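Model it.
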Amino acid sequence: MSRLRTSRSDSDPTVSPDLPASRRWRVLCRVLVLGICAAIATAGVMVLRHTSNASADPSAQDWFRLRTCESSNNYAINTGNAHYGAYQFDLSTWRSVGGSGYPYQASPAEQDARALILYRMRGWQPWQCASIVGLREDKDARSGRISDITVPTPGGPAGNSHPWPGVYYSLGDHSAGIKQWQLQMRHRGAPLTGTGDFGASTRAVVNDLQRQNGLPATGLLGPNTWNLAWTGKYRKGAPAKPAPKPRPKPKPKPAPKPTPVKATAPKWTAPQYYSQGDHSATIKAWQLQMHRRGAPVTGSGQFGAATLAVVNAVQKQNHLKVTGILGPVTWKLAWAGTYRKPVVAPKWTAPQYYSQGDHSATIRAWQLQMRHRGAALTGTGRFDPGTLAVVKRIQRLNHLPATGILGPVTWKLAWTGKY
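Modeled.
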C-alpha cells in the first residue's frame, strides 16, 4: 500500500487533494476495506471472550448472587435450620464433598472450594436460589471433574490433601480416584502399585489405615479414609490401635412359639359351611374369639378379606389344608388351636423410591429392621454399597427382580419376606 500524505482536504480528511481522482478513489476503497476488516476482527474477539467466559466455571458475580440469596453472603451463618454457611450446606451434602465439622466453621476459601466441587458434581440442582436468581449451567456442571480444585486444609496450608472424589469405593471397584489414593499410600510405604483396581491388597491397606487412626475397619474408602492418606498416621506393619470393643450384635428375637389354648369350644350348630361373602351370627362369634386372641378382625359377622386371611392362617398354623372355609374343625381351632398373629410391616409413607447414594430416615428404618434379622447393616440412613447388596439379596430370595431399588414391595419384605 502507498504511503498517504499527512495533508488532508476539508471535505475528506483521509484523502490528499494532490492525488489524481482515480488514485484518490483507490485509496478510499482501501481505507473502507481496512475499516470493515477491523470491525469484524473486533467482533470476533468479543465473541471469543464471551464464549470463553460462558464455558468456564460460574463467575465470581454468579457465586455472589447465589450466596446473597442463600445466606445474605454470610459465611458464618447458623440459624438452627440444619443448613450452614454461605452456601447453606446441610451436613450430609457437606460430607459428600469431603467436608468435616460444620460448614459455617470452615474458612470462606474452603466453603467456596467445596461449593465448586458440588457444582461440578451436580450443577445448580442443590441450590433453590440458583433458579430464583436465574443462574445457568455451563459445560463444567455435572462433569465430575474435580481434580483441579484445591481445598484449603483446616489449620494448615492449602494442598495438604487432595479433594475427595465424592464416591465411596469398595472391593471390586475401579477408578482414577482409587489410583490417586493408592499412589499416595505407595509414597508412604504401602504395598500398592497404583492400578486403580480396588483389590484385596487395597482393602488390607484401607483397613490398616483406619485401625491405625482409631476408625472402625470397614474396608470402605470414603472421605475420612481418603484424607488420612495425606494427613493420617501410617506405618507399614505397625500394630493397630486397640479398637473399642464392638457392641455385640443384637440377636434376632425368635418368634414366640405358639401354644395351644386349652379351652372348650362351643358346639358347632351352624346349618352350613361359610366362605367369603357370607354373613351370619356364627361368623361373628368366631371373629370375636379370634379378635380376643389378637387377630385383626372386628366381629362384624361379615366374611370379608380380613376374615379369609385369618381363616387361612389358623388352618396353616394347625397343619390343615388351607381352604379358606369356616367349618366345624376351623371353628373349634379359634378356642383350642394354635394361633400366632402374623407379622405386619409398617406402612410405606416415603415420598420416593431410593437407590444407591440416597439418604433418609426411611432407609435407616429399613436398615435397622434388616439388622434385626441378621444383615450386616448399621442403620446410618445412607444407601451405601452394603445396603445395595442386602436389597438385591432379599429381592432374589423372594423371587423379585434384583433391581437394587428400595420401594414399597422391598420395604415390606424386611418384615414379612424370606431372608
